[in-house]
From TrEMBL:
Keywords: DNA-binding, Transcription, Transcription regulation. The keyword Transcription applies. GO terms for cellular component: protein-DNA complex. Residues 1-58 form the HTH lysR-type domain. Gene3D superfamilies: Periplasmic binding protein-like II (3.40.190.10), Winged helix-like DNA-binding domain superfamily/Winged helix DNA-binding domain (1.10.10.10). It comes from Denitromonas halophila. This is LysR family transcriptional regulator.
Length: 297
C-alpha cells in the first residue's frame, strides 16, 4: 500500500471534491482519481460514493479514515524526530493571514526565519479568521494569525496584542452623528463586514441589545477598501483604532468611540492545532513570531 494513496484518500474525504483535493495536493485530478481507484482495488472496498454534490465516503470509507490518518501521522512523526536528531528545521510552513502584512509584521518575521532557518520555506496565505480556522483543522494551514477567542482544547494560541476597536466615520457626517448615541448611529449608513469577521461581532454587540440593525450601504472586508469607502462618505465602519487614526491624517475620517462599556478589545493571536504544537517546524515558527512581537510564550 502506497502512502501517497492514503494521503489522497484522506484529502478527498476532507475536501469531498476531486478538484479541491487535487489543488490541495498540487497534482492533477486524473492522478487523484487513479490513486483512489488503485486503493479501492487493493482493499477490495468502495471508499467513496460519487454524487452530484461531490465525493462522499461510504460506510467502509468512514471506518478506515481514522486509521489512515493515524498511519500518516505515524510516518510524519518519524520524519519530525529525524529532523530533531539532526538539529535541523526543514520543510514548508503555510501561515494564514487575517489582515494586512504591515500590521502582522510579516517582513520582520520572514527576515528572522530566513536567518534562523534558511531551509524553511514560508507560504503566507490571505484569508480571515473565520475562513482560516477550518483550514487549520483540515491541515490546509499549519498556523494562522487569528482574532478573537478560540477553543483551547483544539488550538494552541498565544495573544500577540489587544487591538483597540472604534468606529471610522466620514467627517462629512460629523454633524449628523453628533454625540453618537446608539439610535443616531443606527440611522446612519454602514459598511458591513462578513459574519465571520470580528467587526461583525462588535456591531452585533452594539446594536442587537437595542433591537436595532443599521442600513447596509455595502459590504467590504479589506481594510484599505473599508477606509477608502468611509473617506468617500459611503458609510461608517468598525475597524482598528490605530488604522482610523492613521487615515484621519487625510482630514476625511475621524474616530468615534464605541458606545460599549467596557470598550471592547480584540485579541490578535497566533495559533496552530494543539496536537501539532510540538512539531519542530511549528516550534521554530512560533518562536520567531513571539520574538518579532516581543511576547513571552
Amino acid at each position: 500500500m502506497e502512502l501517497y494513496h492514503l494521503k489522497t484518500f484522506v484529502t478527498v474525504a476532507e475536501e469531498r471534491h476531486l478538484t479541491r483535493a487535487a489543488e490541495r495536493l498540487c497534482v492533477s485530478q486524473p492522478a487523484i482519481s487513479a490513486h483512489i481507484k488503485a486503493l479501492e482495488e487493493e482493499l477490495g472496498l468502495a471508499l467513496f460514493e460519487r454524487t452530484p454534490k461531490g465525493m462522499l465516503p461510504t460506510a467502509a470509507g468512514e471506518a478506515l479514515l481514522a486509521r489512515a490518518r493515524h498511519a500518516l501521522a505515524a510516518v510524519g512523526d518519524v520524519g519530525l524526530h529525524a529532523q530533531e536528531l539532526r538539529g535541523e528545521v526543514i520543510g514548508t510552513v503555510r501561515i494564514g493571514l487575517n489582515t494586512d502584512a504591515g500590521f502582522l509584521r510579516l517582513v520582520e518575521l520572514q527576515s528572522l526565519l530566513k536567518t534562523r532557518h534558511p531551509r524553511l520555506e514560508l507560504e503566507f496565505l490571505g484569508g480571515t479568521t473565520g475562513a482560516n480556522l477550518p483550514k487549520l483543522k483540515s491541515g490546509r494551514l499549519d498556523a494562522s494569525f487569528v482574532s478573537g477567542t478560540l477553543d483551547d482544547s483544539l488550538f494552541d494560541s498565544q495573544v500577540l496584542r489587544e487591538e483597540d476597536m472604534a468606529i471610522a466615520a466620514p467627517v462629512a457626517l460629523r454633524e449628523a452623528i453628533g454625540a453618537a448615541d446608539i439610535a443616531t448611529l443606527a440611522r446612519q449608513p454602514w459598511i458591513h463586514s462578513s459574519p465571520d469577521r470580528v467587526q461583525h461581532s462588535v456591531m452585533q454587540a452594539m446594536f442587537e441589545p437595542h433591537a436595532l440593525w443599521p442600513e447596509r450601504s455595502m459590504l467590504a472586508n479589506q481594510k484599505d477598501a473599508v477606509l477608502a469607502m468611509v473617506a468617500a462618505g459611503v458609510g461608517l465602519a468598525i475597524t482598528r483604532l490605530q488604522d482610523i487614526e492613521r487615515a484621519a491624517q487625510t482630514g476625511k475620517i475621524y474616530a468615534v468611540p464605541l458606545p460599549l462599556e467596557p470598550t471592547p478589545t480584540v485579541s490578535l493571536r497566533f495559533a496552530c492545532l494543539r496536537q501539532r504544537a510540538g512539531e519542530p517546524v511549528l516550534r521554530a515558527v512560533r518562536s520567531a513570531v513571539f520574538a518579532v512581537w516581543g511576547v513571552l510564550a
